[in-house]
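During the no-cost extension, the postdoctoral fellow (Dr. R.K.) reprocessed legacy sequence entries with the updated structure-token encoder. One reprocessed record is reproduced below for audit purposes.
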Amino acid sequence: MSLIDSIITQLRVPDLPYPLTRHENDSGTQWRDFLASAWADQTDDTVIDRLRTSDETWSVRQVNSAYLADRIMSVFLRKSGVHPVLITHAARLRFWLALDLEQRGEAAVDRQSPIRRWLDSLELLKGWSRTGGRSDRWVLDHLSALEEAVTQAFQEQAPEPVEQCISSWLQKLQTQSERADKVSGRLWQTERGAAQQRSAENAVSAAVARSCRGRKLPGELVDFIDNYWRRIMRQVAIKQGLSSDQWRHAHRLLEWLIWVGDPQLSDQDRNRLYQVGEQLMDKLEDLVSQVTGAAPDTEKMATVQQLLTARLRQQTLTLVTSEVGEVDPRWLEPVPEEDREQAGEWVNQWYLREDNGQEVRQYFFAFLEETGEVLWTNEQGAKLRLQSFQEVRDMLADGELRHLPPLYSFGNVLKDT
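Re-encoded structure tokens follow.
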């Protein structure tokens, strides 16, 4: 005899409503009707609580089946780690489980039983949240369908409606899982590319703002930087990264352009101006060819050549104040190694946060090293939002964000019970 069968037939727990004398309930119709009524109420009571309020006399097997169903579901309720909405619906299955345990004993919770398969499947919904959006609707629809199936199974005195509902659910869950993998794969490609573009754009803006701030430059040079050299630097940042020699070279050439164009800087050292002027055009053209794989824009380069000639001849040029934004120096430095290492420990894990009193689960899908951002997704692999890693770290430190520990499987629940 298995352990579960021995518990159902032989256990004696103090204070449970056992019959005073040997009693075997008749056909079990009353027992089934009693559990069906409790299930219909969709109550969070335990089976034993309902037994205590009943005037009927139940057999030892029935009382112990109720007790065991309660114990299993109570442990699962407390330890599983799935979303409260899911665990509440799971725990109410204790009434169906009590009936199944009384009728089939250990077979009610073996690996092939519908209830076991359904409870095991909840591990795949570790990140599910009830947000009120379309992404959680399919799970809520299933919970409604399962409730109807159990009700029908009670009425028909047969498990087939439950078995069919759960089989259909497992197939859909597999489909959803495969779809989520595809969605997240496409998302990674999109967001990684966007992060590279964003990092490059911000780095160029920061470099230009830092170099041009407070400088009065010839209008032609300002136009060259804004409409041509920015684009070259951006391509360098995307292709080679901010730690590359090519990026440092492009940045240095920007500074030389500004030094040459601003009389307040270069007029103080005319010899150096001649030296720089002799080499600057060649270096600009060489870098453009390396980056683009094509010859430089002749018209744009002619503008710089004319500017150099005018400066070397000490011609008076009309100067304008360059319009630059705020300097954000963090874009000019690679993401700190400390952030990379810490993010590597946190990635591919689920986290919890509160949103208007609702528990929201979100997946640390990726760390975008180019921008130092965390990409959060939901259980369907769809993007939730981007968030700076520093903000994530602060939220974890403040307790606003919590790591979701590994789920406690139903198999472990059975062992504990």
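Residues 259 and 265 are 6 Å apart (CA to CA). Residues 160-212 form the longest helix (53 residues). The remaining legacy entries will be reprocessed before the final report is submitted.
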